[in-house]
Amino acid sequence: MNVPQVSLESLAEEPSVSVLRLSGDIGIEHISGIVQRVDALPENKRAHLLIDLSAVGFLSSPVVGALMGCRERLSRKGCSISLLSPRPELAEKLDLMGVNLVFRHYRTKEDFLKDFRWEAREESRKLQLQIPARAGYVPALRHLISGLLLCKGYSSREAFVLESIVDELSNNAIEHGHPPDKKFCITFSFDKRHARLAVTNSCPELSPEEQEKVRDKFRNPRVESDAFRGRGIALIKKLSDEMTFHVEARKIQVVVTKLREEL
Question: Strand, helix or coil at 98?
Answer without folding.
Answer: coil
